[in-house]
From TrEMBL, chain A:
Organism per entry: Pseudomonas bharatica CSV86
Lineage: Bacteria, Pseudomonadati, Pseudomonadota, Gammaproteobacteria, Pseudomonadales
Key word Oxidoreductase present: yes
SUPFAM superfamilies (alphabetical): Ferredoxin reductase-like, C-terminal NADP-linked domain
InterPro entries found in the cross-reference section: DmmA-like_C, DmmA-like_N, FNR_nucleotide-bd
Name recorded for this polypeptide: Uncharacterized protein
Domain Dimethylamine monooxygenase subunit DmmA-like N-terminal as annotated: residue spans: 5-129
Domain Dimethylamine monooxygenase subunit DmmA-like C-terminal, chain residue ranges per copy: 140-183
Gene Ontology terms for molecular function: 2 iron, 2 sulfur cluster binding; metal ion binding; oxidoreductase activity
NCBIfam families, sorted: mono_DmmA_fam
Pfam families: DmmA-like_C (PF22289), DmmA-like_N (PF22290)
Protein keywords: 2Fe-2S, Flavoprotein, Iron, Iron-sulfur, Metal-binding, Oxidoreductase
Domain of life: Bacteria
Automatic annotation (TrEMBL), chain B:
Tree of life domain: Bacteria
Organism per entry: Pseudomonas bharatica CSV86
Matches recorded under InterPro entries: HODM_asu-like
Protein name per its UniProtKB record: DUF3445 domain-containing protein
Length: 201, 349
């Protein structure tokens, strides 16, 4: 079974103003704030005036760009204590959104993945969303055996908090679940685990 | 006329007392997947037109295990709800396409077992082997006991995946997969063609996926194509999903050169792909056949001889991917007793 070198991992963009957009939703988290600031700097005054920022201060690496974002001359800034709260709000904004809305996401892979679930729920087109990854590549992992999601996984092999099995993290990514796949690491012979390894986080 | 065996048990439901066996006739009609003594991936696609009297005669093949396999599907769906059948909401039109294709194909190819009567959108479907006589309104899901895809594939042999065409690729939109080979339907749902083939080695580098996708995007309604694929499974176990890996992977440690004939099964997949007329979806069925090495050697010794050569010389990456690294040598030793070194002559078996 292939563990590494699987071709389903997302390829990310670099945020830049999308010229066709009439309204711009810019959502980010933690160190993703830097990409948001750069994007705003690249925008015209008119684009900035049609931009709403959503920022979550939850961060695995401890980066916080809130102060700088508060100085930005945009239509609005909403701040959230957690990524989940931001994504709930994003889901609402997208539900009310009209044609011409463009979405920009920046942050951890887990944040982008779960935010994309909200975007896919309203069928945003591929050319209406840009995603820039920042910070560490800690992973969100789905356990194939008990359906538990684990955030911020950094090791190739870890114990699933749901079923206590040792899982090996495959480089196989599901956009729908916004997660990598974890399967029993010692499936053939109990106790025969693959070598411990730091993920390329 | 196909004669169905009484309900057999598969190893995944009753590992100690499974009764699944093939008759001589069932072995000789298999779509044997090795055209040569060596095997490597290729674009092995051909028009899906009727051929011979075996598995390639009908649009969708059924054999002596039909009742057993439908029974197996019902048991798996009941024991693990939500794991083996899933459909995204916008796939309903494709579900009706699939229901129509299966009902028309089965009733045309096996009129002694299945009948379809249509009066406008009022349809009556009779499935004699399973004892069903159902009337419903085509296009109105509320007139069926469950979604159309689940309803009809509970009465069909094989796995069925519906692919939606979007953004110049094919996206997995629905599946009935109670017999899948080592992947997760819930995980793969919504993936594009390149993504769900991500774990298969070599294909990307060989350029096969790009060619296959281009080919499939040109598939037209009424002109299906087919290919075969294969794997190896210990014990006649249909359900080998990623979810249940802890249940079946340990079997891989039990194979020896002495018991390989009894334990090891060649898992043949016949895949007849169809473009569906209303939804423009592509149907990807995987009709799975399990045959033990012993039964292959007993009833089709020329195929056993060829399989010895294929397995002996198979690229290590494919062995790892197909999951028999641990017991390849045992298989080769066991199969070697059927290989006298002479050319394979399929007319001799």
């Amino acid at each position: 079974m292939l563990i590494t070198g699987i071709k389903s991992r997302p390829v990310y963009d670099r945020l830049h103003p999308m010229a066709g957009g009439l309204r711009h939703l810019i959502a980010g988290q933690g160190s993703g704030g830097a990409a948001m600031l750069r994007l705003i700097g690249d925008m015209s005054n008119e684009q900035r005036g049609n931009s709403t920022l959503l920022y979550s201060v939850e961060s695995f690496s401890g980066h916080n760009h809130l102060q700088a974002l508060q100085q930005a001359e945009v239509a609005g800034l909403e701040v959230f204590a957690s990524n989940q709260e931001l994504i709930d709000a994003l889901r609402e904004r997208l539900g009310d959104a009209r044609m011409g809305t463009r979405l920009y996401l920046s942050g951890s892979e887990s944040f982008i993945g779960t935010a994309m679930q909200a975007a896919n729920a309203v069928d945003l087109n591929r050319d209406e969303v840009l995603r820039e990854h920042s910070g560490t590549l800690v992973r969100r992992v789905w356990c194939a055996h008990c359906d538990t999601y684990t955030e911020n996984v950094t090791q190739r092999v870890f114990v699933c908090p749901g079923c206590q099995l040792h899982l090996v993290v495959r480089d196989h990514y599901s956009r729908r679940l916004a997660a990598f796949q974890g399967i029993k690491a010692d499936g053939e012979v109990p106790g025969e685990l693959p070598a411990a390894e730091e993920l390329d986080t | 006329m196909t004669v169905f065996k009484p309900i057999e048990s598969y190893a995944d439901l009753d590992a100690k007392g499974f009764t699944y066996r093939n008759s001589r006739e069932a072995v000789l009609r298999l779509p044997f997947p090795y055209p040569e003594d060596q095997y490597m991936y290729s674009m092995n696609v051909e028009p899906h037109v009727p051929f011979g009297e075996g598995a390639l005669r009908a649009q969708f093949d059924i054999d002596e295990h039909y009742i057993s396999e439908c029974h197996h599907r019902a048991q798996i769906l009941e024991s693990q709800p939500g794991v083996h059948y899933a459909a995204l909401p916008h796939m309903m039109e494709a579900q009706w396409d699939l229901l129509e294709l299966l009902m028309e194909s089965y009733s045309r190819d096996y009129p002694e077992h299945f009948s379809l009567e249509k009066k406008g959108s009022q349809w009556r479907w009779i499935n004699r082997p399973l004892g069903l006589d159902d009337s419903f309104t085509f296009g109105d899901a509320s007139t069926l006991p469950m979604e159309p895809m689940e309803y009809i594939t509970r009465q069909a042999q094989g796995e069925f995946i519906l692919l939606e065409e979007r953004d110049d690729t094919l996206v997995m939109g629905a599946g009935m997969a109670t017999q899948r080979a080592d992947y997760s339907l819930r995980f793969n749902l919504g993936m594009s063609f390149m993504e769900f083939h991500g774990p298969v080695p070599k294909l990307h580098e060989m350029g096969i996926l790009q060619r296959a996708l281009k080919f499939l995007l040109r598939l037209r309604p009424g002109h299906p194509v087919r290919r075969t694929n294969w794997s190896i499974t210990v014990n006649p176990r249909l359900e080998t999903s990623a979810e249940t890996l802890p249940d079946w992977a340990p079997d891989r440690t039990t194979v020896t050169a002495q018991n390989a004939g009894e334990l090891v099964n060649l898992r043949i997949e016949l895949q007849p792909l169809h473009r569906l007329p209303r939804s423009n979806a592509v149907l990807f069925p995987v009709r799975t056949y399990l045959v033990s090495l012993q039964q292959l050697a007993d009833f089709a010794p020329q195929w056993a001889k060829r399989m010895h050569r294929v397995i002996r010389d198979l690229d290590q990456e494919l062995v790892d991917y197909k999951g028999f690294t641990r017991y390849r040598d045992a298989m080769v030793t066991w199969l070697s007793q059927y290989d006298d070194g002479t050319p394979v002559d399929e007319s001799q078996q």
